[in-house]
């Protein structure tokens, strides 16, 4: 959706339609018996409109264009930024605590029930009326979806659209309003070594915050698209199965798979973080956490199981490019 702004109060020329006297400092003044009729003072309207326009342009240069449009046009517009918007207050800028405080209200816990069992994952609120982005494997085949926000409020959610090839899904809360939407950043500017924060519900521990760095870019991560295969592996506590470099991790990925370019992070991710947020230090969402490596074994019985600092996230630019398709009800 595009928006345009129209300036009102353009400068009006009071002499429009009249013959204009040439500009000449030596030109004699008009006769005393024919004084110029007073004209309405409208000149100030032009500069005022110009100042307003400059303010809008300044906001755009500062990276707040989409946020400004959201505030002016309604709550169903996704807040996104082509640059880095400062979501975190300046007093806490660059701190994990500041990021956690600013973004945690936009992260939810998702519990999905299906024929294969139940699973717990995470999601990111992208509109104030309850649109949520998550991984397809979190809600794939679900007959019932329950979502809990950071303040403990529970909602029922319905699937709007899915894209198994990108492991993305869009769900919508029922009867929700006034939620805090996250700001979607620009993953094209992410660099190796950038500090990041991850927020999600590992093992059902909602609102868990971890931090680390971007370890690598453009990792070719392969995950299953078959819902039964994914749910069965996910239930074993070994994390979502994936393949990288010809090797399979956390179980057999099966025959029906898809590959995408992922951000790699050493921020701790565990089962339940899937669908949650990977966030830059300004509070912008730069990725949707989707896969993690866990040594073979049950998380409840093996001391080696759990995060070892190998996590992967779908770049947020991939998500933004897929939103229109998901909103249109895609089911592939």
From TrEMBL:
Alphabetically ordered keywords of this record = Hydrolase, Membrane, Protease, Transmembrane, Transmembrane helix
Instruction: Specify residue ranges for compositional bias: Basic and acidic residues.
Output: 1-10
- Renumbered residue ranges of the record's region Disordered: 1-43
Q: Which InterPro entries match?
A: Chloro_Bact_Ser_Proteases (IPR051201), Peptidase_S1_PA (IPR009003), Peptidase_S1_PA_chymotrypsin (IPR043504), Peptidase_S1C (IPR001940)
Pfam families reported for this sequence: Trypsin_2 (PF13365)
Transmembrane annotation, as ranges: 48-69
Family as reported in the entry's similarity comment: Belongs to the peptidase S1C family.
Designated name of the protein: Trypsin-like peptidase domain-containing protein
Q: What is the lineage of its organism?
A: Bacteria, Bacillati, Actinomycetota, Actinomycetes, Kitasatosporales
């Amino acid at each position: 959706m595009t928006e345009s702004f129209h300036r009102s109060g353009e400068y009006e020329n009071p002499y429009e339609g009249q013959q204009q006297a040439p500009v000449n400092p030596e030109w004699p003044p008009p006769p005393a018996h024919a004084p110029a009729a007073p004209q309405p003072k409208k000149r100030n309207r032009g500069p005022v409109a110009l100042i307003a326009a400059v303010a809008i342009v300044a906001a755009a240069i500062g990276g707040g264009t989409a946020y400004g449009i959201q505030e002016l046009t309604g709550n169903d517009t996704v807040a996104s930024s082509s640059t880095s918007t400062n979501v975190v207050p300046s007093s806490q800028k660059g701190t994990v605590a500041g990021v956690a405080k600013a973004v945690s209200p936009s992260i939810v816990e998702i519990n999905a029930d299906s024929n294969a069992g139940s699973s717990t994952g995470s999601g990111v609120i992208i509109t104030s009326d309850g649109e949520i982005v998550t991984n397809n494997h979190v809600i794939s085949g679900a007959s019932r979806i329950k979502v809990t926000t950071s303040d403990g409020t529970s909602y029922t959610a319905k699937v709007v659209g899915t894209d198994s090839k990108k492991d993305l899904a869009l769900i919508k809360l029922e009867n929700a309003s006034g939620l805090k939407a996250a700001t979607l950043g620009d993953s094209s500017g992410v660099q190796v070594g950038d500090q990041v924060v991850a927020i999600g519900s590992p093992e059902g521990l909602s609102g868990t915050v971890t931090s680390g760095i971007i370890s690598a870019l453009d990792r070719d991560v392969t995950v299953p698209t078959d819902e039964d295969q994914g749910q069965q592996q996910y239930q074993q506590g070994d994390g979502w199965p994936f393949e990288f470099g010809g090797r399979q991790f956390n179980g057999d990925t099966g025959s029906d798979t898809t590959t995408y370019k992922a951000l790699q992070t050493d921020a701790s991710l565990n089962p339940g973080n899937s669908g949650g947020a990977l966030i830059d230090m300004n509070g912008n969402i730069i990725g949707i956490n989707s896969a993690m490596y866990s040594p073979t074994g049950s998380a409840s019985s093996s001391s080696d199981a759990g995060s070892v600092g190998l996590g992967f996230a779908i770049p947020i630019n991939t998500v933004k490019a897929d939103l229109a398709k998901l909103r249109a009800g895609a089911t592939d």
